[in-house]
Amino acid sequence: MIVKSIELKNFRNYEDLSLKLDDKTNIIYGNNAQGKTNILESIYLAGTSKSHKGSKDKEIIKFGNEESHLRCMVDKSGISYQIDVHLRKNKSKGIAINGIPVKRYSELLGILNIVFFSPEDLDIIKRGPAERRKFVDLELCQLDKVYLHNLTNYNKVLSQRNKLLKEIYFQPNLEDTLSIWNMQMVNYAREIIQRRRKFIEELNEIASQVHSKLSGNRENFFVDYEPSQSEDTLEAKLEENIERDKKQKTTSVGPHRDDICFKINDVDIRKYGSQGQQRTAALSLKLAEIELVRRRIKEMPVLLLDDVLSELDSNRQNYLLNTIGNLQTVITCTGLDEFIQHRFEINRVIKVVNGTVQNDNYEDFVRR
Questions:
Q1: Cα separation of 50 and 299, whole Å?
Q2: pLDDT, tens only, 253-283
Q3: Final residue in a domain of this structure, among 257, 281, 298
Q4: Separation in Å, CA 266 to CA 173, 203, 214, 272
Q5: Residue 349, Cβ neighbours under 10 Å: how many?
Q6: What is the separation, in whole angstroms, between the first and last Cα of the chain?
Q7: Most buried of the four, 93, 147, 236, 255, by CB within 10 Å?
């Protein structure tokens, strides 16, 4: 799976950009606030229909303009795809695949599989459950259309149930309709829980092996799924918590309350792990994510690394760079010193200065 090129018009600080990428390693470097991450954001958006930052469409459009265009050329299993995204300030985005508009954003997912790794991801272990659920959902939605369908519908039903809980306060007779939403919630939730459990089991198998190598076989890493309720108990718990939910005007159990547990040598590192342990675990997760995608789709994903190397020590830098040599990678950084130090093979070097890009000669940089 390869991103061949990206074209941007009025995207963030880019007025007009046409950029070809190498099939292997691409380094985008330059000072801070020049637009390096914006290129990664455009690739991520082309694959998922969303910004990795959670930005709204109107925030992505270059200041002073009403719309923005993005075109991404992708090669997957020998098949070429042209992904066009049209962002508009006051309308929903438009997406076309090979010139044919899609009615649902979900039709885009799975064409371009992406693993995104940023400094914020290094803190996924110590952050809240919502961030950990987001990590699972983003990958599963790219890999599993059924999961995407169930999650989308679950969130709709959850929203309706929460709305009803607020209305019951003013109209108590509406409580009789709660059972309808409970039934729908349980049906979707059971599928979500089952697929999340399988995903975490696969992830744990790979991540534990990666972590063992990273730690020199000194640490046993374990990833476990912590559902709010199991498939078998969720329906009963929803009924049991009706009075509590009415009082709090929100749904207290379900997949939207799930979490993931991370342990090293049987210690929960969400609470008791050192920063070094948490960051090594996060790196293990991301590298495991790459391998899991490869196993599921029989092809390597595209890896986007947003200024991660500066946050890792030399040992973790070395392990990461030695691992990513066989897939297309786009890396942002402020300089090339880390790559020179590790004698890392670079296929394309791009310098970014205030929303403009230029090719740079890596060999000339090494001789400076």
A1: 23
A2: 999 999 999 999 999 999 999 988 999 999 9
A3: 298
A4: 49, 17, 18, 11
A5: 21
A6: 34
A7: 255
The residue ranges of the chain whose pLDDT is under 70 are: 342, 359-368
Q: What is the CATH number of the domain that holds 263?
A: 1.20.1050.90
- Give the full edge-to-edge strand order of the sheet including 91-97: 14-20, 2-11, 67-76, 79-88, 91-97, 100-101
Q: Are 242 and 177 in contact (CB under 8 A)?
A: no
Q: Does residue 365 contact residue 349 with C-beta atoms inside 8 Å?
A: yes
What domain range includes position 218?
122-298
Global pTM? 0.91
Last residue of a domain, one of 253, 271, 298: 298
For 116, 154, 255, 277, 338, the CA distances from 196, given in Å and listed in that order, are: 20, 14, 9, 24, 37
Is residue 126 located within the same domain as residue 220? yes
Indicate if 186 and 314 belong to the same structural domain: no
Residue 26, domain CATH: 3.40.50.300
Cβ-based neighbour number of residue 154 at 10 Å: 21
Number of domains in the chain: 2
Distance, in Å, from the CA atom of 310 to the CA atom of 76, rounded to the nearest integer, reads 31
pLDDT of residue 361: 56
